[in-house]
Amino acid sequence: MNVLVILMPVSLFLGGLGLLGFLWTLRSQQYEDPDGDKARILNDRWDELPDDGGPVPRAPR
Amino acid sequence: MSQDAPAATIARPDLVLHLPDIHCAACIASVEAALARLPGIREARVNLTRKRVHLCTDGLDADGVIDALAARGHRAQRLDTDLLAGRDSTGRDLILRIGVSGFAMMNVMLLSVAVWSGAAQATAQLFHLVSALIALPAVAYAARPFFASAARAVSAGRLNMDVPISLAIGLATLVSLLGALEGAERPGWFDAALALTFFLLIGRYLDHAGRQAARSAASELAALEAPQALRLQGGREEIVRAASLVEGDLIRVRPGDRVPADGVVRDGESDLDRSALTGESRPQPVAPGAEISAGETNLSGPLTVEVRRAGSDTRLRRLAELVAVAENQRSRHSGLADRAARIYAPVVHLLGAAAFLGWWWGTADGWRALDVAISVLVITCPCALGLAVPAVSTVTTGWLFRRGILVKSHTALERMSEIDMVVFDKTGTLTTGELVLAGDPPDAVLALAAGLAQASAHPLSRAIRAAAHARGLAPVPVERLRERPGRGVEGRHEGREVALGNPDWLGMKADHDETVVGLRDAQGATYALRFAETPRADAAASVARLRAEGYEVALLSGDAPGPVARLAAGLGIERFEARMSPEAKVDWLRARRAEGRRCLMVGDGLNDTGGLAESHASIAPGNALDAARNAADLVLLHDRLTAVSDALAMARVATRRMRQNIWLSVLYNAVSIPLALAGLATPWLAALAMSSSSLTVSLNAARRMR
Q: Does the keyword Transmembrane helix apply (chain A) (predicted)?
């Protein structure tokens, strides 16, 4: 049963990773526009974020 | 990831446009490409879910952006950022708690399954201790909303649903912790405490999300038409928000505009459509010196108005606030869930206490007694009860929203299901508010009238032209056409003066019950052209459907008896009242309430707001005044009146399903409580009962609607 001592932290760690991932999606506002994200997959342009210099002309891939 | 932190700037945009028509990837690309090319825009991001585009600009004017989008074929309207609902922090908080409790529940459940399937002694104690390590912080964090609400209720001397919930969660965690520390052979309840938290948080979130969606849609409607005004400043016109006007400002009100503030006409003559405030369909002439109120619509000539009261001081707003008092009365209506909870909470407490005392007295074993009491509290868990009503109302409001019906109040569905009488307002609700030529004037008269009407944009002139066009008549040419705002139009025909307009102006005797326009022809003879309101295309069908479904239909109007009686006859409404002041409407509805009738009021004007608030439930069409939409429980986002019977039918289905759900969870309890009282309920049985009852009510809610 000594293997439990290793397995339990491992399982908790993996579960915790999942929780952190969920928190990250929440924090980076990935639930703001589900319909838009669904549609943007089909977009053939780069969807980069313009930095302070303003929108970069988008080159076709 | 396409959404790597749209970050601080785009989260706080300085310009938000509503794009009602976008629906696909190509639309997003074309909008964003069009905006990227526009100078002065730092960042633009389309949100397809909300059909909006958020812009960060260098102080750009909305009109330029809207024109640029129109050139690419996208309709855009400005949304007032101040009126939009802010970010939904409560909802995010609840999701976070759901995530934490879900994570903890799954991990603890894994360990519990190991214990249930036979782990013993040292292993079992280790598992219990690890469970405690996960469960304690998780419960402390995730269940805080329940603890807080229960504490508030208890300190106010009341019992709500959260009291038994908190008691069950708290006791289960505490007793299991003591057991784990002692290494006792008693069962642990950590998984039950966490599952309880998890399921109840989901119910709480559904409840919140439904209300939030309605609120943000309602604030979007308000933000779409944040009233603006044309202020005259040093000979120039500038567009300002109506709320920022102050007394003494001069504003210009163009034909077709809604008056943004109360004031006195300084210059210009026109006709005003006051139906939103009074319900009267006939336009009223105004001249310099006349007082006008916010909410009225200018019809024919431009007016210069000196502002007397603006923003929240206008007559419109103050009347709307009076309504808020009546509103309170209805918000005291307690929903099904509240009523169930009120019976439920004391019963659970009594059962728990009885189980504890009974077992203590019977076995003299305090721990055993406590254990049974906890199992009773956990098993009678209002999980299913907590989900029963919110799950149904979430599904229903979503269904209605997709069909253009916005549910604003969370008890609206239940109240709608009790309705037995539907009361309509006339102008703007059953009718379009537009007038058409009635009767059958001779061709020559109509052609001459149409010739004169060409000079004017007045709605009655438009109606005359439309009638002539429909009959295939060419307008008679009239020379020297002059519009006299507030009076009519005059000109020369066959070398003689002819005129079209207000009967009083033409020296005709007019029947004040009707909308009549006078015509004086070249021979000096006068004719009266009568007008009637057009009922909405689906008004007759909706009324017929409501009557077929067993609702009594009534019509209350502020208009004169003649037009009201004609419309009622045309639509087959037997019960109608004319010349109703706003107070009379409220009294009428109160009288019906006293008779035990449950009335649904459908109205759009300020004169209806009292009625909307007083009636048992209320609906406002989307083109209604802001005040009316605020007072109403449901708002129609389009102009189809058949939505009224759709909403009523849905409300009946939803309420039936809420009842079913409550009975289902009672049934689960009826089976499991005797087991728990007998001391036979083990943690795994509790987990099974909890999940299956929650699943049952959720599935019942999600069942196809019809």
A: yes
**Whether B477 and B505 share a structural domain:** yes
Q: Facing residues of B617 across strands? A: B600
The CATH number for B18's domain is 3.30.70.100
Considering the domain architecture, whether residues B180 and B276 belong to the same structural domain is answered as: no
Which residues in chain A are closer than 8 Å to B107, comparing Cβ atoms?
A: 11-12, 15
In a domain, B2, yes or no: no
Q: Are residues B607 and B553 both part of a single domain?
A: yes
pLDDT tens digits for range B365-399: 888 888 888 888 887 766 677 788 888 888 888 88
Kindly give the pairing relationship between strand B405-407 and strand B634-636: antiparallel
* Location of structure tokens 């214990």: B115
Predicted confidence (pLDDT) at residue B577 exceeds the cutoff of 80:
yes
Residue B564: inside a domain: yes
Chain B residues whose CB is inside 8 A of the A33 CB are 3, 47-50
**Total structural domains within chain B:** 5
Nearest residue to B246 via CA among B231, B264, B265, B224: B231
Is B64 near chain A, with CB under 8 Å? Answer: no
Q: Closest CB to B103: pick one of A18, A39, A42.
A: A18
- Residue B34, CA distances (Å) to A43, A57, B64, B70 in order: 15, 12, 12, 10
Q: How many domains are there within chain A?
A: 1
Which tokens is B563 given? 């037009």
B395-425 burial, b for 16+ CB within 10 Å, e for fewer? bbbebbbeeebbbbbbbbbbbbbebebbbbb
- Report the 3 state secondary structure along B630-674: HHCCEEECCCCCCHHHHHHHHHHHHHHHHHHHHHHHHHHHHHHHH
In angstroms, what CA-CA distances link B656 with B389, B393, B659, B664, B700? Answer: 11, 11, 5, 12, 11
Examine the domain organization and report whether B105 and B154 are in the same domain: yes
Domain containing A32 equals 2-46
B88 flagged as catalytic: no
Tokens of B637: 């986002």
Nearest residue in B to A38, CA atom? B25
pLDDT at B281 over 70: no
Q: Which range marks the domain in which residue B194 is found?
A: 89-216+335-393+656-702
Q: Is B435 helix (H, G, I), strand (E, B) or coil?
A: strand
Q: Would you call A7 an interface residue with chain B, using a CB distance cutoff of 8 Å? A: no
B397 and B407 in contact (C-beta within 8 Å)? yes
Contacts of the segment B224-228: beta carbons below 8 A, 24+ positions apart:
B224/B18, B224/B77, B224/B78, B224/B79, B224/B80, B225/B626, B226/B80, B226/B82, B226/B83, B227/B258, B227/B260, B227/B294, B228/B260
Residues B553 and B427 in one domain: yes
The pLDDT assigned to A47 comes to 52
Report the percentage of chain B scoring pLDDT > 90: 8
Give the count of Cβ contacts less than 8 A between chain A and B: 86
What's the half-sphere exposure (Cβ side, CA atoms, 13 Å) at B496?
9
CATH number for B263: 2.70.150.10
* Dist. CA B46–CA B32, nearest whole Å: 7
Q: Which residue among A22, A52, A55 places its CB closest to the CB of B36? A: A55
Interface residue of B49, B52, B108 to substitute, partner A, most A CBs within 10 Å: B49
Tell me: pLDDT of B142 over 90: yes
> Residue B222 falls within a domain, yes or no?
no
A41 found inside a domain? yes
| 3-state percent breakdown (helix, strand, coil) of chain B, nearest 5 | 55, 20, 30
In this structure, are B38 and B145 located in the same domain? no
Contact B99 A26 (CB under 8 A): yes
Inside any domain, residue B318: no
Of A39, A49, A57, the CB nearest to B4: A49
Total number of residues shown for chain A: 61
Residue B21: what residue type? D
Nearest C-alpha of chain B: how many angstroms from A30? 6
C-alpha–C-alpha distance, residues B120 and B604, integer Å: 70
Q: How far apart are CA B625 and CA B631, in angstroms?
A: 10
